[in-house]
Design goal:
By secondary structure, the protein is an alpha/beta fold. The protein is built from ten helices and eight strands. The protein has a single domain, classed as Aldolase class I (TIM Barrel). It has an eight-stranded parallel beta barrel with strand order 1-2-3-4-5-6-7-8, surrounded by eight helices.
Length: 209
């Protein structure tokens, strides 16, 4: 599947999404609400559970025509046929991920608050770069903060390379994030902690239209 030009990017959380049927239902509601990219984050799960959950999400994403990315785990992405991976600073290199997953795989890279890291990722063929945490994040309270001005600098430096904002983004903050130049807004709680997941996703996704 191709990387969408822009849109809402949701990241799963085992505590919020559950497993099996619960995971499938919550993910499907998010996609139906307008999520355009979904990332499975299961690095602290047992290997067999992570694979079962990832397979569930692949089926849901395939039915909705939405790319599924796997956080950190290139081998898992290959085993289940995911659309790609999202890599952090301690994960497989971009070159290794590309060799393993192929030229059509989507590879995103966390750059925290570093333009230099983003420049290297771009040179190595990353499909998008992510900066954050742009706001205080309940899932990663210790995360480095990335000011919105960083997106304006990145847009000037990297041209059309897609930029992703992550960290503490909610419906009130999202318009400001988009105005700063982010192509994607990655969220966890803003979607999956909502009582009505589909409605929450729709409210956020409308900002990209």
């Amino acid at each position: 599947m191709r990387l969408p030009e822009r849109g809402l990017y949701a990241i799963t959380d085992p505590m919020l999404c559950g497993h099996g049927e619960s995971l499938a239902a919550r993910a499907d509601a998010a996609l139906a609400g307008g999520v355009r990219l979904l990332q499975f984050r299961g690095k602290h799960l047992p290997v067999d559970q992570a694979e079962r959950d990832a397979l569930v999400l692949r089926q849901v994403c395939h039915a909705r025509g939405v790319p599924l990315l796997i956080n950190d785990d290139v081998a898992l992405a290959r085993r289940i046929g995911a659309a790609g991976v999202h890599l952090g600073k301690d994960d497989n290199s971009i070159r290794e991920a590309r060799l393993t997953l192929g030229r059509d795989a989507i590879i995103g890279v966390s750059c925290y608050a570093s333009l230099a890291r983003a420049e290297l990722a771009a040179a190595l063929g990353a499909d998008y770069v992510a900066f954050g945490s742009v706001f205080a994040s309940p899932s990663k309270p210790e995360a480095v903060r990335a000011p919105l001005s960083l997106f304006r600098q990145a847009r000037a430096r990297f041209g059309k390379l897609p930029l992703c904002a992550i960290g503490g983004i909610d419906a009130e903050a999202l318009p400001e994030v988009i105005a700063a130049g982010a192509d994607y807004a990655a969220v966890i709680s803003a979607v999956f902690a909502a009582t009505e997941i589909g409605a929450a996703a729709r409210r956020l996704a409308l900002n990209f239209e």
